[in-house]
Amino acid sequence: SVRAERDTLAEKLRDAEDRLRLLYDNSPLPMSVVSVADARYVYVNRAHLQYYGRSAEYYFGTDPYQVWIDVTLPEEFEHGRVLFQRVADGALDTYTLEKHFRLPDGTTRHGELTLSVSRDEHGRLQQLIGVTRDVAALRAAEQAQRSLQEQLERSQKVEVLGRMAGGVAHDFNNRLLIVLGYAELLRNELS
């Protein structure tokens, strides 16, 4: 019957939604979803709350634009605004932005935000999906690698200079021995 089929489909849809929510809730990556039409957060996972140091009540009770202002450093605001404007204009459906996120205690976290959108059949924004990746450890490791590379290059230069100095000293020593040899011969002839 049509009713039984509808009930079966509704059950499958609930199961799929439950699996999706389980995936989001247990993701180690901070994730959030904003309804553009309602201008409000409709979802934030535990990792998001932990990463940004804010409560679910804050997100669900605060305008998403205000949240963006709260977590964005003034010197990084314009770049993010330009990218988002390109999304709003339909030029982009996703972008990744590396930035520093301001936490409630005034400290910052270095992260990479990937913002993706869903649109309706007319191309209007429906939802913004944000996924953040903490890149502080990665950038620190890259800096350490650059530092080690610079140290290696300096030590290689010192090694080359040492070889050159050794070669010059060896050559000088050979010539000095010749001069000393002639001086000894002259002394012997004069004595």
Record keyword descriptors for this entry:
single chain; rod-shaped; 191 residues; five-stranded antiparallel beta sheet; alpha+beta
Biggest β-sheet strands, sense, barrel: 5 strands, antiparallel
Strand and helix order: HEEHHHHEEEH
Stretches where pLDDT is under 50 for at least 5 consecutive residues are none
Return Rg in Å: 33 Å
> What would you call the shape?
rod-shaped
- Helix percent reads 55-70%
Largest beta sheet: what is the strand line-up?
2-1-5-4-3
Structure description:
This protein is α+β, with helices and mostly antiparallel strands. Helices cover 60% and strands 21% of the residues. It has helices at residues 2-25, 46-52, 56-61, 64-71, 74-88, 136-190; strands spanning 31-35, 40-44, 94-102, 108-119, 125-134. The longest helix is centred in the C-terminal third of the chain and has 55 residues, at 136-190.
Quick synopsis:
The chain has helices at 2-25, 46-52, 56-61, 64-71, 74-88, 136-190; strands at residues 31-35, 40-44, 94-102, 108-119, 125-134.
List the helices and strands and how they pair.
Layout: H1 2-25, E1 31-35, E2 40-44, H2 46-52, H3 56-61, H4 64-71, H5 74-88, E3 94-102, E4 108-119, E5 125-134, H6 136-190
Antiparallel strand pairs: 1-2, 1-5, 3-4, 4-5
